[in-house]
């Protein structure tokens, strides 16, 4: 069970899985922030902070955390490392996965979640001999929730690592593309830590009925990114 796993081991596993060095290619996706930079909505440290906080609290950050938490809880009981999901509620997980893709505001965001999920699942197999056992491509937050559960990691801790990895990637895009100083990026990350913890805590006790948000500008930017003539990032 997750509760019986040593906290140091949990932290090691989560820090590895959600590290920029975990080779799933997250660095190549901007989640629409490249379009926001191009349009002049994100131009400095202050606007970067506001934009990412909007996504975290009222957009895909919160929704992905809810999806991850519900995928985590759908595995009952958790299987041993290396086992498949034969004893899990696969039908429920598939519903969560379908919802994850349905929440994508455009083709690029669906592509981002699908490709990150595929790569994440593949690397899990190589590193942890973990077979998530579902044939359809898993959305990234769904795969993350299943992995955290099967590797015995506590839910809120897993959500915190997942969300900090998510916002860290967006900050790194802004540092390169605005550009910002590296210290500005770290200040933004530190300022967002309380919000990250709050979203993780909320998601851990929230049902799928509570997905939704108000980050319309971020969703619109991700759609506009599809038509940018010059771009560095895939989304």
Output the helix-strand order: HHHHHHHHHH
> Terminal Cα separation, in Å?
37 Å
Uncertain spans, ≥5 residues at pLDDT below 50?
none
Q: What does the radius of gyration come to?
A: 17 Å
Q: Care to count the β-strands?
A: 0
Taken as a percent bin, the fraction of beta residues is under 5%
Categorize the overall geometry: globular
Helicity range of the residues?
Answer: 55-70%
Mean of all residue-level pLDDT scores = 90
Structural class estimated from helices and strands: mainly alpha
Total of helices: 10
Largest sheet: none
Describe the protein.
The chain is an all-alpha fold and 235 residues long. It contains ten helices and no strands. It has helices spanning 7-17, 33-39, 45-58, 60-74, 90-102, 107-128, 140-150, 155-177, 182-204, 216-224. The longest helix is centred in the last third of the chain and has 23 residues, at 155-177. The radius of gyration is 17 Å and the shape is globular. The termini are far apart.
């Amino acid at each position: 069970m997750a509760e019986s796993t040593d906290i140091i081991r949990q932290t090691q596993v989560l820090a590895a899985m959600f590290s920029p060095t975990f080779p799933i290619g997250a660095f190549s996706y901007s989640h629409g922030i490249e379009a926001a930079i191009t349009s002049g909505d994100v131009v400095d440290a202050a606007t970067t902070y506001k934009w990412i906080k909007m996504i975290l609290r009222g957009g895909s950050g919160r929704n992905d955390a809810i999806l991850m938490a519900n995928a985590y809880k759908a595995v009952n009981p958790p299987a041993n490392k290396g086992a498949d999901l034969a004893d899990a509620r696969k039908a429920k997980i598939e519903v969560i996965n379908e919802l994850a893709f349905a929440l994508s505001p455009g083709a690029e965001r669906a592509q981002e979640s699908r490709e990150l999920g595929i790569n994440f699942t593949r690397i899990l197999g190589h590193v942890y001999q973990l077979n998530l056992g579902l044939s359809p491509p898993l959305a990234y937050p769904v795969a993350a929730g299943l992995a955290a559960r099967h590797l015995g990691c506590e839910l809120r801790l897993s959500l915190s690592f997942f969300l900090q990895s998510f916002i860290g990637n967006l900050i790194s895009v802004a540092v390169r593309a605005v550009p910002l100083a590296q210290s500005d990026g770290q200040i933004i990350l530190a300022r967002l830590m309380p919000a990250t913890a709050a979203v993780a805590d909320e998601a851990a006790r929230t049902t799928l009925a509570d997905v939704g948000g108000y980050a319309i500008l971020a969703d619109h930017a991700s759609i506009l990114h599809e038509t940018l003539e010059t771009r560095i990032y895939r989304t």
